[in-house]
């Protein structure tokens, strides 16, 4: 699926099962994006997961016949989530999910089942919003549908997932009133949710564009990053990890640009989510990149990742010669390389 919501394949570890979902994880919380090593790896793992999903669908149908009302509702909530994954992985339309959600809604469901059924019907509507819209932009329709859902289900466990999914649309249209409303809901009702913290951090980063970006951070030697010393040349700040395939590719691309191997024409601050700082330093040395390396060894729980809402890798910040943040380029999307080159050129950075 594609469209204004920018759904991407994610791998979310849940218990002992890997859930591959074309979009945000269909549950109350999300995990940061990671990537299989190669397309064939994804195909093999996805095929195995499809088999497990089909088996679970059969088990649920068997259990539904002898369940109590409360257990019946719980099983239907699970069945909708499993069906979404299955349809997505098989590349099928979501009509069966819509039908299941409508059926669940028609039998006086309990609150949890009604909340889930309305959520899945909304997900189907969002996936079709591009085709349904006329003069109104699909992004505006998506925001309106999500806010209507949240008005009906203000304590929905899916609230953070939905807001994460549509907030980019609000930023894209510079609809900061909607951004403030959506983040306000999360901070009020889900203050401790990891997605809330990530989105608040991401909002801080987006609104820093055009301002001098010089957070108080230390490198792996415990020395504070000297942002003032970098003035007068463009700077790349990379959130990355040596184990992430997309990060490796991005750093190799940057390494091919003049100024990062031994001259003083550009600077890099590499903020690594590796568990071992030495792993980050070793990879940078391998690709021939000279950088100030920051790594607190906490992985996705890194204070820097949380503070700036980093939920996927790589994320590249481009600073101009005056230290002002000019662009934030996320590694999610097939046009990442092009966007990164354009952002670097925009601050006078050289590509050859």
Kindly estimate the percentage of residues that lie in beta strands according to DSSP: 5-15%
Biggest β-sheet strands, sense, barrel: 5 strands, mixed
Strands side by side in the biggest sheet = 5-4-3-6-7
Average pLDDT taken over every residue: 84
Structural class: alpha/beta
Order of helices and strands: EEHHHHHHHHHEHEHEHEEH
Roughly how many Å is the radius of gyration?
22 Å
* Tertiary shape: elongated
| Ends distance | 36 Å
Helix content: 40-55%
Please mark out the parts with pLDDT under 50 across 5 or more consecutive residues, or reply none: 1-31, 131-136
Primary descriptors:
single chain, 352 residues, alpha/beta, Glutaredoxin, 5-stranded mixed sheet, two-stranded antiparallel sheet, 13 helices, 11% strand, disordered N terminus
Characterise the protein shown here.
Helices cover 49% and strands 11% of the residues. It has 352 residues and is an alpha/beta fold. The protein folds into 2 domains: 9-206, no CATH class; 228-346, Glutaredoxin. The two termini are 36 Å apart.
């Amino acid at each position: 699926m594609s469209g204004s919501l920018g759904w991407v394949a994610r791998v979310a570890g849940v218990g002992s099962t890997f859930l591959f979902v074309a979009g945000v994880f269909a549950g109350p919380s999300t995990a940061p994006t990671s990537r299989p090593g190669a397309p064939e790896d994804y195909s093999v793992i996805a095929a195995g997961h499809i088999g497990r999903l089909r088996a679970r669908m059969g088990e649920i149908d068997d259990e539904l016949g002898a369940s109590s009302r409360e257990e019946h509702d719980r099983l239907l909530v699970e069945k909708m989530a499993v069906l979404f994954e299955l349809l997505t992985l098989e590349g099928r339309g979501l009509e069966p999910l819509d039908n299941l959600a409508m059926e669940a809604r028609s039998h006086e469901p309990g609150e949890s089942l009604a909340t889930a059924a309305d959520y899945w019907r909304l997900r189907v509507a969002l996936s079709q919003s591009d085709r349904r819209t006329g003069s109104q932009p699909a992004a505006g329709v998506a925001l309106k549908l999500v806010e209507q859902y949240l008005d009906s289900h203000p304590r929905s466990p899916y609230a953070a997932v939905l807001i994460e999914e549509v907030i980019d649309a609000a930023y894209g249209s510079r609809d900061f009133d909607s951004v403030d409303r959506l983040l306000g809901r999360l901070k009020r009702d889900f203050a401790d949710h990891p997605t809330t913290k990530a989105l608040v951090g991401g909002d801080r980063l987006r609104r820093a564009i055009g301002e001098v970006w010089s957070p108080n951070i230390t490198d792996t030697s415990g020395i504070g990053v000297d942002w003032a010393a970098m003035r007068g040349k463009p700077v790349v700040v990379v959130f990355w990890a040596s184990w992430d395939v997309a990060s490796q590719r991005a750093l190799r691309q940057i390494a091919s640009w003049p100024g990062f191997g031994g001259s003083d024409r550009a600077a890099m601050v590499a903020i690594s989510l590796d568990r071992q700082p030495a792993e980050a330093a070793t990879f940078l040395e391998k690709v021939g990149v000279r950088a100030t390396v920051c790594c607190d060894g906490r992985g996705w729980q890194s204070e820097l990742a949380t503070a700036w809402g980093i939920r996927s890798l790589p994320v590249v910040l481009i600073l101009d010669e005056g230290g002002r943040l000019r662009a934030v380029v996320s590694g999610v999307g097939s046009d990442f390389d092009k966007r990164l080159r354009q952002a670097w050129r925009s601050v006078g950075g050289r590509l050859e």
